[in-house]
Amino acid sequence: MRKIRLIPRLDIKGPNLIKGINLEGLRIIGDPNKHALEYYNSGADELLYMDSVASLYGRNNLEDLISKAVKNVFIPITVGGGIRSLDNAYKIFKCGADKIAVNTAIVKKKSLLSELVKEFGSQSIVISIEAKKISKNKWEVFTECGREKTGKDVMEWAKETVDLGAGEILVTSVDQEGTRKGFDINLVKNLSDLLSIPVIASGGMGNIDHLSDLIDQTNIDAVCMADILHYKKSTIPKIKSEMVQKGFSVRKYYD
Amino acid sequence: MKTKIEKKNVLGLYSLPTNVKFCKSCTISNQRPRINFDENGICSACNFAELKKKLNWKKREEELKKLCDRFRKSNGEYDIIIPCSGGKDGSMVAHQMKQDYGMNPLCVTWSPLRYTEVGRKNLDSFIASGFNHILGTPSPIVTKKLTELSFKTIGDPFQPFIYGQYNFPLTVALNFGVSLIMYGENGEVEYGGDMKNAYKPDRTVEDQLRHYFSGVPPKQFSEMGINKNDLKPFDAPDLNRLKKNKTEIHFFSYYKYWDPQENFYYAQEHCNFEPNPERNEGTFSKYASLDDKFDGFHFYLAFIKFGIGRCTSDSAHEVRDKKITKEEGIALVKKYDGEFPKKYYKEFLDFCSIDDDDFTKIIDSWRSEHIWTKDKEGKWILKTPIWN
Questions:
Q1: Which residues of chain A have pLDDT under 70?
Q2: Is residue A241 in a domain?
Q3: Confidence check: pLDDT of B315 > 60
Q4: How far is C-alpha B49 from the geometric centre of its chain's CA atoms?
Q5: Is B334 near chain A, with CB under 8 Å?
Q6: Residue A98 is among the residues annotated as catalytic for this protein
Q7: Which CATH class is domain B55-255?
Q8: Which pLDDT value is given to residue B211?
């Protein structure tokens, strides 16, 4: 039976948890690890840390943050943003990350994906795709936090990365991200129908109905949420219990 | 058409200091016209950003309420003109003036030279969120001619737009008998100018008519072959009529803490504002100045004249607002500043009826020796980049 994983997404800039809209804006929400701990304690299945401006500035600096987080958080942690080399990846894993998410660097240099898979295994490599809708049933891959066009088609690109050994696909809808207007269901549906590996949907969740529509209509495995949790519009226990009421299966939450 | 272009005296025209110096706390340089640096090497905009945090904003909001009480009509007639393009800033001002302060605004847009798709969409979304609105569109034939001439002579293709941006709201105010005009931010305070403006909520109409057109009022274009009557829509109304109307120009940024990034969040939530689908050329941001296909050339010219491109300006604002650090700002400037606006280049050349060669000649006529030099391969480079 498919249990949907709920993954709070922590977008980071410098020392701060931030929240944008359409991957734009850097509004500071607070201390990332405080939020991480709260989400872990309230039943999150995994966590995603994303240094959203790492590629923009050509840096990555989540190591310190992750080293501290793993002392208190005992669910899988995925770390993304600015991973450009095997060495970068080593350092992130050494801090205690379970998986890494890559986007910009792989788009620039596809061979890096094969190297990462060979070194760390598919199970630990998440391909992050920033997808922007360009017409009905067509999405373009963006990089550098939704700033740069690549000309790549999302479906083709996802397929390519799966062939190279990607373990999971995290797809963020640039159009829906931060808007609270619901997921790009069509995007997620197309992707999850196409791929044999788990797809994580990110971007747009404003209420529980958005989530149930998504699960109803797609073959999704996991869902990222940020706005709804950071702004305290809901909590993970509430979301999980509402999901159970609607007949969906989630990992049980023990207080 | 081949154009004879003379070398311009940038230093003299804008009274620039000959030694390029950068603000100690942000990314702006002393080449920005009218900016001041204090004895510690901090620019006036940064000093204002610090002062801004200490101002009594509660008291200033009380002043805003009093201002509204003085002008509110409550009889269905418009009582405030809000210049607003449907961008994040004007949308926020209009929405708050209506919802929170009970005013009945007439929103006014002066058309960009050429709308981008997202710019037009944002204007429509803004209007759809419940506003009465007037769009002023001058004859594109005259606008084109003016754009070409101002690009060649003033080195800023945006001049015809700037005329309308300042003058059209005045015309609308007169015609509708509205005495209060509310702009968003006072650029002379937020982005560097005389600090005395920090304590002033308004600008006199005389001041507005006198200052903000690079010393070239619309009527000057009649000397360059444009029919006087065709210039009328770009021109300001008669000063005496404006005074008789008791026209007052105020700035929202005097009354309430001005934070462009927060305006973005506000406009998205309340007026369905959308950022640009991709990064604006020449900078990192997606949420500012995105409605005109040709604004890249306005910013590019500033880069040529002053070494201050769009990314320098954008990053300086965000450093002052504490959204990014100075080091991040410098990294962004190095990465994006001065990027050529290639996306609409061809369209721009057609609009101005010039060719590639004319364009380069015009650009080079604005390169001052104190800012530009050539590298070994003969490529233009900044003499004093911020990252050196």
A1: 1, 254-255
A2: yes
A3: yes
A4: 19
A5: no
A6: no
A7: alpha beta
A8: 67
Q: How many domains does chain A have?
A: 1
Which structural domain range is residue A18 located in?
Answer: 5-245
CB contact (8 A) between residue B278 and residue A14 = no
CATH 3.40.50.620 in chain B is located at 55-255
The answer to whether residue A254 is domain-embedded is no
Q: What ipTM was reported for this prediction?
A: 0.92
Chain B interface includes A230 (CB < 8 A): no
Residue A55, in any domain of the structure: yes
**Residue A173: which region, alpha, beta or left (left: phi > 0; alpha: psi -120 to 50)?**
beta
- Is A61 within 8 Å of chain B by CB? no
The mean pLDDT of chain B is 94
Contact of A73 with A96, CB cutoff 8 Å: no
Distance of residue A206 Cα from the nearest chain B Cα, in angstroms: 12
Within-domain flag for A251: no
Whole-model pTM?
A: 0.94
